Amino acid sequence: MHRVLTNEQLSPNVYRLVVEAPRIAQIRKPGQFVIVHLGHGAERIPLTIADGDPEAGTISLVIQAVGKSTFDLVELQPGDVIAGIAGPLGKPTELPESGRVVCVGGGVGTAVILPIARELARRGVRVTSIIGGRSREWVILEDDLARCGEVVTCTDDGSYGRPGFVTEALKDTLEAGGIDEVFAVGPVPMMRAVVALTKPLDVPTTVSLNPIMVDGTGMCGGCRVTVDGVTRYACVDGPEFDGRKVDFDELADRLTTYRPFERAALERREACKVGLKTGERGGVAAPAAAGAAGGAR
Questions:
Q1: Per-residue pLDDT reduced to its tens digit, 209-225
Q2: Domain boundaries, the chain
């Protein structure tokens, strides 16, 4: 059992949970993830380890509430427990020892680049983080990344920082020269756009394909992706790959596979909540909670 110590809201639908996981906190590395199992009947979902404190025996999970399972997790309060957290899993990020690196984070992907930026800064690498959100309220972890180096903040509506997309800021940064490597984490279209900028310049670019992971163990096959013409599994062969070699057409298509199931699971969750409220008001029996199989994260 893993006790939740804090639950902090970072944006309208993104939360940071600090939970007890002593063994994982001791050995986790940037780029790795855990499998979280809330309890009986719940879905097992992969989540990136955004931070860890070996002395306190805790890890931080930054969770975007988009489906049944993630809504259930972000509703946890201090003192609540998570039944199981397995990990760390996946291959650690391969990081340089010197030079200048740009870390690009889109939305909740910013949480994935945070441990990368921290380790790079610890090694003495010059780090520029480019992060963004639809508007100011959607920008997360800016202060944390500022401790690692320069931060360029972008908002789609221009309400904060630089107006426009993170790719536009990256384009200007690349044109200025001196960039040795790029790490990009965010929505698949964003990562694809980053690679379109870096590939012609032959700048090594690492992308994280955690958005397509399902069970996180390589057994379901849902995270298959073609990299340099070879089939790979994001959860066991990654989750990070050379973005210049990823088949983004196939990847984008695979993301749509589970959408009907995710939508149905979320609808069942909302119906259950409505039923419970009705039962409380009028004595009507509330429906049984729906299972989480196939539910959205």
A1: 876 676 666 677 777 88
A2: 2-89, 100-254
Half-sphere exposure of 256 (CA within 13 A, CB side): 4
| Prediction pTM value | 0.81
Residue 250 has pLDDT above 90, yes or no: no
Q: What is the pLDDT of residue 284?
A: 35
Diameter of the chain measured on Cα atoms = 68
Q: How far is CA 277 from the centre of its chain?
A: 32
| pLDDT at residue number 277 | 55
Q: Give the CATH architecture of domain 100-254.
A: 3-Layer(aba) Sandwich (3.40)
Determine the Cα–Cα distance for residues 227 and 233; give it in Å rounded to an integer: 10
CA–CA distance from 225 to each of 16, 26, 130, 182 (Å)?
A: 29, 31, 26, 21
Predicted pLDDT at 261: 47
Q: What span, in angstroms and rounded, lies between the C-alpha atoms of 184 and 165?
A: 13
The tokens of 167 are what?
Answer: 């790719």
As a CATH number, domain 2-89 is 2.40.30.10
- How far from each other are the two terminal CA atoms of the chain, in whole angstroms? 20
